[in-house]
Amino acid sequence: KEVHEAYKAAGLTSVAIFKESDAKVEKYVKDRKLNMLYAVDTKGDSWKVFDTKTMPSNFLIGKGGKILAISVGCD
């Protein structure tokens, strides 16, 4: 959320992908006042695409679709 707010004016598009149920995500988004794009993927298909093993995982993807950096965990 903080990265999104800091860089959205520079053109960064952030998307949060949750693996939890719609109801749980809806509560989280409301409680955290999440003001960015998000999706729900309860099957974990996106986790397979990005070979994600840790939550949260952050991927910085350049305009051409190349993954520029990956940050895992809460730090």
Description:
- The chain has helices at 2-7, 22-32, 45-49, and strands at residues 15-18, 37-40, 57-61, 67-72.
- It is α+β, with helices and mostly antiparallel strands and 75 residues long.
- The strands form two sheets. Strands 1-2 form a two-stranded parallel ribbon. Strands 3-4 form a two-stranded antiparallel ribbon.
- A hairpin with a 5-residue loop joins strand 3 (57-61) and strand 4 (67-72).
- The model has no long low-confidence stretch (mean pLDDT 85).
Overall structural class, as computed from helix and strand content, comes to alpha+beta
How would a textbook summarize the main sheet?
A: 2 strands, parallel
Instruction: Report the span from N to C terminus.
Output: 14 Å
Poorly predicted ranges (pLDDT <50, ≥5 residues)? none
Strand order of the largest sheet: 1-2
Helix fraction, binned, reads: 25-40%
Mean of residue pLDDT values: 85
Give short descriptive properties of this protein.
single chain, 75 residues, alpha+beta, two-stranded parallel ribbon, two-stranded antiparallel sheet, 4 strands, 29% helix, 25% strand, globular
Short description:
The chain is an alpha+beta fold and 75 residues long. 29% of the residues lie in helices and 25% in strands.
SSE topology:
Elements (H helix, E strand, L loop, with lengths): L1 H6 L7 E4 L3 H11 L4 E4 L4 H5 L7 E5 L5 E6 L3
Parallel strand pairs: 1-2
Antiparallel strand pairs: 3-4
